[in-house]
From TrEMBL:
Keywords: Cell outer membrane, Ion transport, Iron, Iron transport, Membrane, Signal, TonB box, Transmembrane, Transmembrane beta strand, Transport
InterPro entries: Beta-barrel_TonB, Beta-barrel_TonB_sf, CarboxyPept-like_regulatory, Plug_dom, Plug_dom_sf, TonB-dep_OMP_SusC/RagA, TonB-dep_rcpt-like
Pfam families in UniProt: CarbopepD_reg_2, Plug, TonB_dep_Rec_b-barrel
Lineage: Bacteria, Pseudomonadati, Bacteroidota, Sphingobacteriia, Sphingobacteriales
Protein name: TonB-linked outer membrane protein, SusC/RagA family
Organism: Solitalea koreensis
Amino acid sequence: MKKTLLSIALMLVVSIAAIAQKRTITGTVTAKEDKQPLPGVSILVKGTSVGTQTDLNGKYTLSVPEEAHTLIYTYIGYTTKEVPLGKGNVINVELISDAQQLGEVVVTALGISRQKKSLGYAVTDIKGDDLKRSGEVNIIESLSAKSAGVQVTGSGGTPGASSKIVLRAPATITGDVQPLIVVDGVPIDNTTTQTTAGDYPFNQNLSGVNNSNRAIDLNPDDIESVTILKGPAAAALYGAKAGNGAIVYTTKRGKSRKGLGINLGQTFEIANVTQLPPRQSTYAQGTIQNGVPTYFTADPGPDHIYNTDDDISGGTSASWGPLISSVPGLSSHDNADVFFKTSTANTTNLSFDGGSDKVTYRFAIGNTYQNGVVPGTNFKRTSFRLTADGYLKDWLKVGGTANYIKSGGQRVQNGSTLGGVMLGLMRMPASFDINPYTFDNGFQRTYFSAGYDNPFYTAYENPFNDNVNRILGNIYISYLGKPWFNVTYKLGVDTYSDDRRQVFAISSWGNDAADQTGQVNYGSITNRDINSDLIFTGSGEITKDITLNYTAGHNVNSSNFGSLYSRGTVLSIPNFYDLSNAANLYSSTSKTRKYTWALFGQLDFGFRDMLFLTVSGRNEWSSTFGASKNNFFYPSASVSWLFNQTFKLPDWFTFGKFRYAYSQAGISPVPYQAATFFKVPIFTDGFTNGISFPYGGVSGFGYDVLSNLGSENLKPERVTGNELGLNLKFIKNRINLDLTWYNQETKDVLLFRPLASSTGFASVYGNSGKLRNRGFEVEANADIYKGTDFNWNLGITWARNRSEVLKLADGVDQFEVETGFGDPGAYAIVGQPLGVLYGSKWARDDKGNLLIDDSGLPFQADQFGPLGNPWPDWTGGIRNTFSYKGVSLNVLFDIRHGGSIWNGTQARLNRLGRSEASADRERTYIVPGVKSDGTPNDIPISAFAYYNFYLGDNGSAVEQNIVDVNWFRVREITLGYTFHPKAWEKYVQSIGFNVTGRNLFLSTNYNGVDPETSLTGAGSNIQGFDYFNNPGARSFIFGINLGF
């Protein structure tokens, strides 16, 4: 018993001695500026791994060893502070905001915040206010000219039309060329799904309206910041989704504050058409007959139906008639001026935010209604967004976001369709009055019997409507144990339905049947993405000189896409658009499911705050990979060296960083191509229409000549990047320079390789190609003047990229990226830039002179060839920001040099005698070139032949209308004024006014609509095609913002 008591006594003495060797430090960490507590501040005993974090009230408790002498306090956006341990056990600390450091903290892959100085790859961070200031409804469009190497292509001034964004250059031929879109750490869908008509037109991107890209559903007012991860090194942790880079959006969240914060914003916008192809208004509708310009009437006979009256032809599409002034009763009409209107838009945003030391929240409502410059077009978006974050315990945090969006509107046919508004409007003879657009019986009145709709009829009688209901959301739970061990689980969901209806009235030519019998199309699209992340993070000191941050985790992603299309043709009752009113019915359905799961990890080492090394890896399994190998690994490594910390530099040399990154990312194969499947076949004999199923009431499935052979060896495309960078800052950070050189190669490029007909299949989808992109980027920023009241900041971006196709499939030297026009087409050709325009060329002699035949006209070469690279030689942006007290002025210039566009619009207008140049027709022309005997051409030809067969598209070479385009535009000008009314400070914290002008000025050598627009939209991998594209718009936006 005595021994037991003695043992207990000895244990108590030892325990007391051990306790005496440690001390407990408590305190509160606050911000010096506003004295508010700072939650989540890391506190570390210097030279050890002992540490803790502050709670929601900024309070902390830390047991420190007796030999400890210093505590280190670290918080993002604030200057790190070291505090010596004195005799007291209570240490309260104030941290000073580091505005420069705050600006240098960026959100990277997986939503991880990192100091920009530690990154070994190029990123661009943009404030949400910069997006909002642009006034764009689409958050993709608002990124134009704000970052080097970021190319944004719109689809004209139609509300709700898609915008395509490419970082640096496409890294794939048949896959999606756009970057991954991430919101609050969760990937979301940004698909542009074109509408099929039940029996799948030859190219969805050339048939019908320009549908929205789904990023348009996001409200710019909800965005706090944007980080652009340009290369595979920056986005490698996303694996097979990151081959084209990523754009990470961080949304606004609630803040702990006294009372309820209310913010109300209202904008009003007016817009009009910017640039249209110039047209002549002197000559009437008609053709040349026996060498004499002859007028043709446009209207049909008494029954008001074209092609049924023996004595009335219904006009001609050409404007080669006589002078309008020479025909009694005729006058010239500016139909474009009558058709296009000044559009308006209204946007209202209302948000509430607040919280306590335990819970913060933000609730926002946004509503946008935008009319278009084309009559009848509009886009509507209503958004409800709720975010909440809270601590259940000091070490347990939960939160989430729920966002409901309702969007959609009404659009019209565009581009290469018989009902395209620009096709009908630009071709319309000046002698034809667009109004009225219907006859008394309701049938349309147009200028040409062969099938072009009156634009007003298209706008009002052939609408396309879509209605999208979307839910975006995520929930998370985080265990905040120690600085060296934290765990977060996040579940995200993105689901939407998209219901569409498109009609073509009886007497319209705008359907693919082109028989004026009427048509109704219905479409229903559903999509659901579920994303699950389990992420472990931690940080600590390995030694007093070496720090380590780690990230490790697991990701699961499930995607389900479905569509149902129905089409009814030959309508019986006018204006009754129901499938029961159709004589012929067609339908199609599709379902696509994709499943991916992955393991990933990242280690970030720091040495004396001057040398940083990051290594990461992701191993990914996917249902789209072939059965022979269904997992692939994506490694990445980067280094950042702050040489200003290594060498003693002059005082004016503030900062210097050299960086290098090597990485691999991927592009996933198209689903269901790893196996061979049955389909509803069509059997043809080459002479008849063949046999299709159902046949005789019997369904059938099998292979046909259009089937693709599956490949069990299918694997993702692999994008390998090498990137060098140099970051310099001078004169206390007043001058910043960021230089980047990169070399990216994509191997195992996926292609549909043609097969011999003897195999029973048309093609096989497999890995066979190789691409390369090399480029250089410059981002510079300077405080030209920095004073107490007045400040002037100048920002410059510049980028160039060189793309080359290194290899296609064995035995294949060229591959058409997308079918469509044929001449020209967009091709991948070995040794050429990806997507090069390819088509007919003029025959030339050895010196490059055109060869002229006996008629005085050039003739085509025997073979097609490359015509031009649609990607620019270089792009640039210049931003000036001025501020004086509460007044600010932002001016953004956008520059593009080079890049080819096929001006198919101009070619057709020349042919029809409608172009402005074709008005000079009272003389003869001589085409420059040489005759068969080698002498200069001296054969005169008529204006009709010159504009039809040489400058037009009636048998001429497409080469003639390829234009190398340059432009300089004033992208944005914003004037704002914000003040804080002292008389009402109890109720109103701030009042702001702003006026924004967008696309105010454009100087270009391009003779057509705004060359920035795209015919095929964001759902397409090709660009450089202008065939009656919808025009761009110039807008003025007036806004007011109230903070309560």
